[in-house]
Design goal:
622 residues; globular; 11-stranded mixed β-sheet; 37 strands; Jelly Rolls; mainly beta; Neuraminidase; 2 domains
């Protein structure tokens, strides 16, 4: 017979086990966040077979160009990664890291681009140049030059000053013993920059003002700048972003007594004031004292991710969002998704933010495929006008992109579609349309050839990418779609039009090709249905009957019935999107495409091709 003491110990053990996770209370330190949607991705396709976060606008900020790059243009270097974002003084500020070819291979620098509206970006400027040690200071044994690495880029001080920061270290391991220190400089309202200072030296090392290239911040004669730096050093949550580059046992970062490795912190405040802390590899914790202490970081079993970042924030409608790559293989970081919730604890509805994966034009070590290392605007670092959520990321660790996610975040519409674009501002946002807009293949609203008529313009001069615009409409098994197309040329480029279901299946496929022919599918086969000429409007009318046991569609061009009850290319239950794309459908790279096999640059990657321009108008779903 067990003693009362034994029974008491068993009860304590059971309570302890339940508290440590077996019967954890979601929303506590045992499980700070949970994704309950159940939907995950199909890794065989770029879009993951997800529904889209409607109205998301994706814009390429910087397109890597090795041949025509310049110091204050595209850097000329083709490893570009880890962007950070802020909004201050009526401008977006975006900084990113850059190396000539490979990740973690010297030299390295940090660049800055700015924008008034998030769509039109300045040429990047170098704000932290490659590190040059003072005379007589040698690179320590075992290292091979200097590089940059940072998880934090900006800080808006209580007095309103904007600081930008970066971290210098040694190739190939800039962390802890390999680090040198964190540098800071001020960005002035006129767009100029203050001097570079160190704000913190690497805790593991013996670096100080006597053996580093820049002075310590406290020596500045600008008392406002010094005060801003002091405020940052006393801002617990901001400095916790530095933790994985510096010494984890440094008292500046203390709080997790277990010393578990934590990388790439993002955080947000719940409605009850507690801070939700998110790191790479699905880890999360809670803090009730602004990061001074926090619960033991635990791996969230419902968040599927690997070495890519997890970004979380409260959005303008009072709800919460997380964005990440839902895949465990770090070499193939796509798609980029968003999940949302009401309370910052329970998240649902996994939706697509960015499902494009263009060809990687330049090989480089550890240049993983897809849109990754996403970062929004850290709390306190500005709030752009409007309700939108802004997210910066790199594509293939080569180009820098930003996405404007429409808030509220939704995936369907019940409203009729009747888009003529006349009420929109040329060059401005395009509500309810998902657009993918590379620098050499932009999607814009424009005034049509000197008339008062606004249209959607897709222009393409990119040899390896395309412009794309997608409209989500009411899900239906009997669709009646109309739209108009005007093509500037019929001997270059192509316009592909797909009608898709919620999974991205393409039962109806139409192409205006570069031979002056309109091609449509008859089941799984493509056939020419009509020739077209340049600089003329064409009216398209398509009806779709989606049934799993033999769906079909009809099509008319300028009133001519060119397709009659043609079988669908793929069986679907319903349709809900129409996609316009200045290129062919792509499914490469795939999860089996070699990632680390050296290869020369893609031919002609640095040169524009002959321009093709397409205009779309009067998109209707009856």
């Amino acid at each position: 017979m067990r003693s009362q003491k034994t029974v008491f110990c068993i009860v304590l053990l059971i309570v302890s086990v339940e508290y440590r996770g077996i019967k954890a209370q979601t929303g506590t330190g045992e499980e700070p966040v949970r994704y309950v949607g159940g939907v995950t991705i199909d890794p065989s396709v770029h879009e993951g077979r997800l529904r889209w976060a409607t109205g998301t606008e994706s814009i390429q900020v910087m397109r890597a160009n090795r041949k025509h790059g310049g110091i204050d243009a595209d850097s000329g270097w083709t490893y570009n990664h880890a962007p950070n974002l802020a909004y201050w003084n009526g401008n977006f500020y975006l900084q990113y890291l850059s190396n000539p070819v490979d990740e973690h291979i010297a030299p390295g620098q940090t660049l800055l681009a700015t924008s008034r509206d998030g769509r039109h970006w300045s040429d990047p400027k170098i704000i932290f140049p490659p590190y040059k040690a003072p005379p007589g200071v040698k690179i320590p044994a075992g290292y091979h030059g200097y590089m940059m690495h940072q998880r934090m880029g900006f800080y808006v001080a209580p007095g309103g000053r904007l600081l930008t920061l970066a971290f210098y270290g040694h190739t190939e391991d800039p962390f802890q013993e390999g680090g040198i220190g964190r540098v800071v400089r001020e960005i002035y309202k006129d767009g100029s920059f203050g001097p570079i200072y160190f704000i913190k030296y690497e805790s593991h090392s013996q670096w100080n003002a006597s053996n580093t290239a820049y002075p310590f911040y406290s020596t500045s004669g600008d008392t406002g700048f010094v005060a801003a730096c002091n405020a940052l050093l006393n801002d617990r949550l901001k400095t916790l972003q530095w933790r994985d580059e510096d010494d984890e046992s440094d008292t500046l970062y203390a709080g997790n007594r277990d010393g578990d490795h934590l990388s790439a912190l993002s955080y947000f405040h719940r409605k009850d004031g507690k801070v939700v802390m998110l790191w790479k590899e699905s880890k999360a914790a809670l803090s009730a004292d602004e990061g001074k202490t926090f619960s033991y970081p635990v791996k969230m079993p419902t968040l599927l991710m690997s070495g890519g970042k997890n970004w979380g924030q409260r959005i303008e409608d009072g709800r919460y969002a997380m964005c990440y790559n839902p895949i465990e293989n770090s070499e193939y970081r796509y798609p980029l998704i968003i999940v949302t919730g009401d309370d910052g604890i329970i998240f649902d509805n996994m939706l697509l933010v960015q499902g494009e994966v263009p060809p990687r034009r330049f090989y480089g070590r550890w240049k993983d495929f897809g849109p990754c290392y996403m970062r929004g605007i850290v709390e306190g670092n500005g709030n752009p006008p409007g309700d939108d959520m802004w997210l910066a990321y790199s594509m293939n660790k080569e180009d820098i992109w930003i996405s404007r996610i429409q808030v509220p975040v939704t995936f369907k519409t019940e409203q009729p579609v009747n888009d003529n674009f006349d009420h929109l501002t040329p060059g401005g946002r395009i509500p309810d349309w998902n657009t993918y807009s590379p620098k050499w293949a932009p999607v814009t609203v424009s005034t049509f050839k000197g008339t008062a008529n606004n249209v959607l313009q897709l222009r393409d001069e990119d040899p390896y990418d395309y412009a794309r615009a997608v409209r989500v409409f009411r899900e239906t098994s009997n669709a009646d779609l109309r739209f108009r197309v005007y093509v500037d040329q019929n001997v270059s480029g192509q316009l592909s039009v797909d009608i898709t279901d919620q999974y991205g299946n393409r039962p109806v496929r139409l192409v205006l090709n570069n031979k002056g022919m309109i091609m449509m599918n008859d089941g799984g086969k493509e056939k020419a249905v009509k020739s077209y000429t340049a600089q003329k409007w064409y009216d398209f009318h398509i009806t779709v009957k989606a049934t799993l046991n033999g769906g079909s569609y009809d099509a008319w061009v300028n009133g001519e019935h060119v397709i009659t009850k043609a079988p669908l290319a793929e069986a679907v239950r319903s349709v809900e999107r129409i996609s316009f794309r200045t290129g062919s459908y792509r499914d490469l790279p795939s999860r089996t495409t070699p990632n680390e096999t050296p290869a020369p640059p893609l031919p002609g990657a640095d040169e524009r091709v002959e321009k093709a321009v397409f205009y779309i108008d009067d998109v209707q779903l009856k």
